[in-house]
Every structure is written in structure tokens, then in C-alpha cells.
Amino acid sequence: MSQLVPEIARLRLLLDAHRKAGKTIGLVPTMGALHAGHRRLMEVARPESDVVVTTIFVNPTQFDRTGDLEQYPKTLDQDLALCREVGSDLVFAPTAAEMYPQPQLAWVDVPELTTHLCGAGRPGHFRGVATVVTKLLLIAEPDRAYFGEKDAQQLAVIRRLVRDLNIPVTVVGVPTVREPDGLAISSRNRHLNAYERLQARALSQALFAARDAILAGERSVKKIHSAVAPFFDGVRLEYCSIVDPQTLTPVEHIESPVLIAGAIWLGTTRLIDNVTVSVGGSAGEAG
Ligand code: AMP
Question: Which residues are catalytic?
Fold first, then answer.
């Protein structure tokens, strides 16, 4: 049974009762159009939490292109069915008016972590993400909150804001779920036509090739960029960067673990992906 809760006050009442009964709460924030990646977050949360709360909210303040917000897929009935199947106890699906009853004047921002990677091309995006995640954490007061490593910059921003603002929650990062050919699963994949879907493989292939080069001993970022450039032939590359996983600033010579992240455009669809590489140890994915 998944109970649909559209109101903040009602969610607070329900969760207060659970907390008083000594239950732990796991929060899985999403924008809906749920897929196997979201399912994995809920599956990881389920055994670790007495009460799993999945949130479905297409947050207007994080969209930097208006058409993108309108185009964002909305599939609430299917989403509820998936939440039920995985055993999410509560589904918090507020309206924009519930979350933003008046113009938002107070914002949470982590500018130092958002000048590079996606932040460079999406002004205001991470401020919207940081603000809505903070609101959700303050509304639900979960013990744990689950986020995908697929959105590595988002995860870094959330980890940092939780630390800097002393929010008492454990942030859990969940590895990226991929299609069999390597493409990271995303709500946006459904916008790809057959040809674009084939082209989409370029991103994960390039990231894996970069990772393999590092694992084989290459340490020059310049050389890695030259080696992976051919993967992006015929696609519009927004960025492909090798950065420090904590500060998200570009590195030139690889001496410690790195995050390799990229964004490409196929028509009007923007796809992102990343991997992490532990230098001198095993390779990990930050999907
Ligand atoms: P979204 O609905 O796109 O905002 O994503 C909600 C959460 O699901 C975020 O924490 C994402 O990082 C996570 N997520 C999205 N796609 C995947 C994926 N393929 N694998 C793992 N987590 C994902």
C-alpha cells in the first residue's frame, strides 16, 4: 500500500506519528516519470528504513529552459503503481502552489560547486535543486535520503549543503542504473528517436574509454581528451570534464580519484552521465 499525500501538513502529521513510534524514515526525492533508476533508489531505501517516502515533484525552480518544464513527462498513475510494487509507504506529490505558495525569496546556493560541469550551462539550476531538496528535508525530516550517483554534481551539492547547514540526515548515494548498452537510464531517454538512441551510446562509451585509459596508467587529462574526442563525432558535446570528485574543479594531471562527467545534446534532448575512477585502486562508478 502506497498512500498518496499531496499536502505538506498531512505528511508532517503522518511522519511525526511514525517518529514518535520510533520508526526510521527514508526519503527518495524524484521528479516522477519513474524508471529503473528511481526503482533502485527505493529498493536500496526499503530494507534500511521503516517508512519509505517517495516524493514526486517536478520542481519549477530548477528548470532553466521554459519549454523543458512543459515537456517534462508526467506519469503519476504509473509512478504510483511502481511505488506500490517496490513498497514505498508514502508518496508525497505536492502541487507547485503547495511547495511555493508565494514567490520564493530565501534560497540555498552552493556557488563554489556549481560553476563547472552542468552548472556552467544551466544558470540557477542547482540553486533550485538545493532549495527544493532543503525544503523536502525540512518537511520530511528523514533519517536517510537517497540520491543517484548519475547526477554526481547534484549529489555533491546536496552532501555539502547537508554538512554546511547541519541538517541531521544521512545522504546515501546510489550507483547508476544503465541500459544493457551502457546508456544511463533517464526520464529524458524517452524523448530520443531511434537514431538519437543509437547516438546516445557515445556518452557512456567515451566515459568508459576515459576510465579505462586512466586504469591503464594514462595520467594526462589532455591526452585522455584527445583519445575520447572521436566518440563525440556527430553529436553536440556540451562538456566532457575530468574533475576532483569533491571540489568539482578540473584537474590537468591525475594523481588522485577523479570524476569524469559529460553532457551531450541529441536534438533538443540533453543527456548527462559520469564515472568515478579510483587511481591506484579499483574503478568505481558515480553514474
Ligand atoms: P530525477 O527524477 O531525474 O530528478 O531523479 C530523481 C533521483 O533519481 C535523483 O537522485 C537521480 O540521481 C536518481 N536517478 C535518476 N536516474 C538514475 C539512474 N539511472 N540510476 C540511479 N539513480 C538515478
Answer: 38
Residue 132 lies in a domain: yes
Indicate whether 181 belongs to any domain: no
Which residues span the domain enclosing 240? Answer: 187-284
Judge whether 99 lies within some domain: yes
Q: What predicted TM-score, i.e. pTM, was given to this entire model?
A: 0.96
Question: In tens digits, what is the pLDDT along the chain, a chain of 287 residues?
Answer: 899 999 999 999 999 999 999 999 999 999 999 999 999 999 999 999 999 999 999 999 999 987 899 999 999 999 999 999 999 999 999 999 999 999 999 999 999 999 999 999 999 999 999 999 999 999 999 999 999 999 999 999 999 999 999 999 999 999 999 999 999 999 999 999 999 999 999 999 999 999 999 999 999 999 999 999 999 999 999 999 999 999 999 999 999 999 999 999 999 999 999 999 999 654 455 44
Quote the ligand 1 centre to 39 CA distance (angstroms).
9
Q: Is the same domain home to 125 and 234?
A: no
Cell numbers 546556493 correspond to 109
Using alpha carbons, select from 169, 141, 118 the residue that is nearest to residue 271.
118
Residues 40 and 61 in one domain: yes
Residue 191 forms part of a structural domain: yes
Q: Whose CA is nearest to atom 5 of ligand 1?
A: 30
Alpha carbon of 69 to ligand 1 centroid (Å)? 17
Q: Give the distance from CA 197 to its chain's centroid.
A: 21
Q: Do 163 and 200 belong together in one domain?
A: no
| Nearest residue (CA) to ligand 1, atom 17 | 37
Please tell me the number of Cα atoms within 13 Å of 116 on its side-chain side: 21
My answer on whether 254 and 275 are in the same domain is yes
142, 174, 206: which is the final residue of a domain? 174
Q: Do the Cβ atoms of 148 and 37 come closer than 8 Å?
A: yes
Sign of CA dihedral 82, 85, 88, 94: positive
